Amino acid sequence: MFDLIIRNANLPDGRRGIDIGIAGEKIAAVEAGLPGEAREVIDATNRLISPSFVDPHFHMDATLSLGLPRMNVSGTLLEGIALWGELRPLLTREALVERALAYCDLAVGQGLLHIRTHVDTSDPRLVTVEAMLEVKERVAPYIDLQLVAFPQDGYYRASEGVESLERALDMGVDIVGGIPHFERTMQEGAMSVEALCRIAADRGLPVDMHCDETDDPMSRHIETLAAETVRFGLKGRVAGSHLTSMHSMDNYYVSKLIPLMAEAEINVIPNPLINIMLQGRHDTYPKRRGMTRVRELMAAGLNVSFGHDCVMDPWYSMGSGDMLEVGHMAIHVAQMSGLEDKKKIFDALTVNSARALGLENYGLDVGCHADLVILQAEDVLEALRMKPTRLAVLRRGKVIARTVPKITELQIEGRPERIDAGYNPTARR
């Protein structure tokens, strides 16, 4: 006897017509023709079922603040940082919580149930930290929210940056962050990497740094981060986010850098939507697009996952909370259009991201948490192409969101009356 059985599901690994039995909060069985009964049965009708989506890089304290106190006219990273500096003194805990909860509602509808967010610690009031700690507690029943202490204005560059970051960690923030390329000098950037890795080692915390988010090929703090990761015994617990400078580095240097990153077991987190929007702004033509070397990093065995980064904030006026939109863009920018490439992209939105966040009991195996999404698509390739409706979202075995299927009614003589939005013409030839 199960609490819930999902029948006739297709899995990301290509298996079709599979039943998933759920007992309590866990997956209890995964097999075709599953015997037994359940209090509730959902017929997936040969739709794709996926573990819930994971966003390993986001800024929830800034989300949905677009236009406050003004718009980013140039659309550049630096104006976005300056604009956030203008908004920061006006922030209140209540407004931060309200916007973050509104975004979490959106995320649930998209099947996004695990988020790592960077929380600005540069304002010594730490109102952002207070607000995100409250949000983390309030959304805990339906979203796993991890918090990174992020010194947006620079660990050393901000007047009280060192003290504020330590206070944020004392308040309960989970992860040590940094932004070495925004320090005053390359030397201070390297010093910040060392200091922050030391703090993480002393406190037993992971590290997630905005690293080399620039077009400058001489911004090489990822090299320092890899070295300090090994030095402080942090292998597998460190993420380098963005790494956009790698798209401008010469191949010889990268041939040395990637093995160093692999030795340190760095988790790599590009952000396709934002990277291609903000980078290359000083170029005429040819214009660089800014995303790091995804294919080469994956080939070297590094764990690569993709973040959404921003939604309607000073840096990015678009965004939807849909991780399939992120993956869709990654396919184009990384030029990973092959069938196996696309499967790797889907993994970067799910299992790879879960690994970067250290999530336990994640996936579709027996014993995993029943955090699942049923999509209006037949397989991974169709999901990435169509960015389909999430028909049902389950958290710990209970449905917490439903969306009606998208159906188009045609009024054309001699053609079908109804077309399912998940329609794949090539599958029906």
UniProtKB/TrEMBL annotation:
CDD domains for this protein: Bact_CD
Domain Amidohydrolase: 40-399
SUPFAM superfamilies, per the entry: Composite domain of metallo-dependent hydrolases, Metallo-dependent hydrolases
NCBIfam families: PRK07572.1 (NF005748)
Protein's UniProt name: Amidohydrolase family protein
Pfam families: Amidohydro_3
